[in-house]
Design brief:
Helix content is about 40%, strand content about 15%. It is α/β, with parallel strands linked by helices. It has one domain: NAD(P)-binding Rossmann-like Domain (Rossmann fold).
């Protein structure tokens, strides 16, 4: 069994997932990575870990990546549930409410809502079913779910993602309440506009920091929440959006 901490990161082939994987590797984690493309396998080799192709919407794939980590390293200390983009998203206009934004919520079909349910909520629920017994056996563990700043203030520009991830906030609190007594924590990180996507002047002007959130800032926040230094933080929704959200 490895003496180094071991983390699983899903959707780790590129973007946010890859940045988080690199940040954890820099902090001494051994990694088991998964994504729908072969990019996570390539990245895992680069970082001295293991990788596999798989989808967060498939229970068998979630079981396989946990088994891969246990087989290779003998332990799992942390899980980062990252996922893809909302296919129902449109060009962001910045404010939480924009009267000029003509978007019909009622025209979003059942398939889109069901896909969001599978992608943004059931992925976390299913991974929790798989990895919680592993954490219980070793006496603790930590899960961080990558959500969105729109979880707190639902937006027409992200209708499916912000709605379903609102439910994720509720599940996270229930999970945290139940398993904290066993040393198992779960938190959500709510990133705003990230620097891996073009940022228009109109959107930038709605951000008090006047810039996008950097990948390094996000990965550092995730690493902290997984660490012993955040040992009393659980069931929380940690905003990292440069001040975009106005709600108290």
């Amino acid at each position: 069994m490895s003496k180094q901490p071991v983390a699983i990161v899903t959707a780790a082939g590129q973007g946010i997932g890859a940045a988080i994987a690199r940040g954890l590797a820099e902090r001494g984690y051994l990694l088991a990575l998964m994504s729908r493309s072969g990019a996570s396998v390539t990245l895992a080799k680069e970082l001295g870990g293991v990788g596999m192709n798989g989808s967060v919407t498939e229970t068998a794939d979630l079981e396989a990546v946990v088994a891969l980590a246990l087989d290779k390293f003998g332990r799992v200390d942390a899980v980062v549930n990252n996922t893809g983009k909302d296919t129902q998203s449109i060009e962001a206009s910045g404010p939480g409410y924009d009267p000029e934004l003509e978007r019909s919520v009622t025209e979003i079909d059942d398939d889109a809502w069901q896909f969001g349910f599978e992608l943004y909520l059931m992925n976390v629920i299913r991974m929790a079913r798989v990895v919680t017994p592993v954490f219980q056996k070793r006496g603790g563990g930590s899960i961080v779910n990558i959500s969105t700043f729109a979880q707190r203030e639902p937006r027409l520009m992200f209708p499916v993602s912000s709605t379903i991830r609102g439910a994720l906030g509720g599940y996270t609190k229930l999970y945290a309440d139940r398993y904290a007594r066993e040393g198992i924590r779960m938190n959500n990180v709510l990133p705003g506009f990230m620097d891996n996507w073009p940022l228009s002047d109109g959107v930038r002007q709605t951000i008090p920091l006047d810039r996008a959130v950097s990948m390094q800032e996000l990965s550092s926040t995730v690493a902290f929440l997984l660490s012993d230094g955040a040992g009393s933080i659980t069931g929380q929704n940690i905003m990292i959006d440069g001040g975009v959200n106005r709600g108290l």
